[in-house]
Amino acid sequence: MKKTKVINSDISRVIAQMGHFDKLSIGDAGMPVPMTTEKIDLAVTNGVPSFMDVLTNVLEELEVQRIYLAEEIKTENPDILSEIKKELPDTPITFIPHSEMKAELNNCHAFIRTGEMTPYANILLESGVVF
């Protein structure tokens, strides 16, 4: 059995297959996911698991060099934005329109769906290297 903190086999597999500049997305329960993008559905009920719980878990294994957030998070969900900045204090953030974020899901290895029920709680994680 795995000893690291990411024990979900699908998430662990996707992270292991990622290379430099590859993307993984985590988001709220309402984010539309293209049929061509793998969806790892963790949602159980309203708020379970939370966006931040899943993000914190993924960051245990994934080296991230940049994050992408919807421009709208600044006004529509400043609490989640603050938590993201606290979790990734030294990681550059690029803000993009939510419509662009949805389109960018076509370029992600996978989308991890959480039970989060707050607006614009979505992130694109760009993989870095550990050397």
Automatic annotation (TrEMBL):
<dbReference type="GO" id="GO:0019303">
    <property type="term" value="P:D-ribose catabolic process"/>
</dbReference>
<comment type="pathway">
    <text>Carbohydrate metabolism; D-ribose degradation; D-ribose 5-phosphate from beta-D-ribopyranose: step 1/2.</text>
</comment>
<comment type="similarity">
    <text>Belongs to the RbsD / FucU family. RbsD subfamily.</text>
</comment>
<keyword id="KW-0413">Isomerase</keyword>
<comment type="subunit">
    <text>Homodecamer.</text>
</comment>
<feature type="binding site">
    <location>
        <position position="28"/>
    </location>
    <ligand>
        <name>substrate</name>
    </ligand>
</feature>
<dbReference type="GO" id="GO:0048029">
    <property type="term" value="F:monosaccharide binding"/>
</dbReference>
<feature type="binding site">
    <location>
        <position position="98"/>
    </location>
    <ligand>
        <name>substrate</name>
    </ligand>
</feature>
<keyword id="KW-0119">Carbohydrate metabolism</keyword>
<dbReference type="GO" id="GO:0016872">
    <property type="term" value="F:intramolecular lyase activity"/>
</dbReference>
<keyword id="KW-0963">Cytoplasm</keyword>
<feature type="active site" description="Proton donor">
    <location>
        <position position="20"/>
    </location>
</feature>
<dbReference type="Pfam" id="PF05025">
    <property type="entry name" value="RbsD_FucU"/>
</dbReference>
<dbReference type="GO" id="GO:0062193">
    <property type="term" value="F:D-ribose pyranase activity"/>
</dbReference>
<dbReference type="InterPro" id="IPR023064">
    <property type="entry name" value="D-ribose_pyranase"/>
</dbReference>
<dbReference type="InterPro" id="IPR023750">
    <property type="entry name" value="RbsD-like_sf"/>
</dbReference>
<feature type="binding site">
    <location>
        <begin position="120"/>
        <end position="122"/>
    </location>
    <ligand>
        <name>substrate</name>
    </ligand>
</feature>
<dbReference type="GO" id="GO:0005829">
    <property type="term" value="C:cytosol"/>
</dbReference>
<protein>
    <recommendedName>
        <fullName>D-ribose pyranase</fullName>
        <ecNumber>5.4.99.62</ecNumber>
    </recommendedName>
</protein>
<comment type="function">
    <text>Catalyzes the interconversion of beta-pyran and beta-furan forms of D-ribose.</text>
</comment>
<dbReference type="InterPro" id="IPR007721">
    <property type="entry name" value="RbsD_FucU"/>
</dbReference>
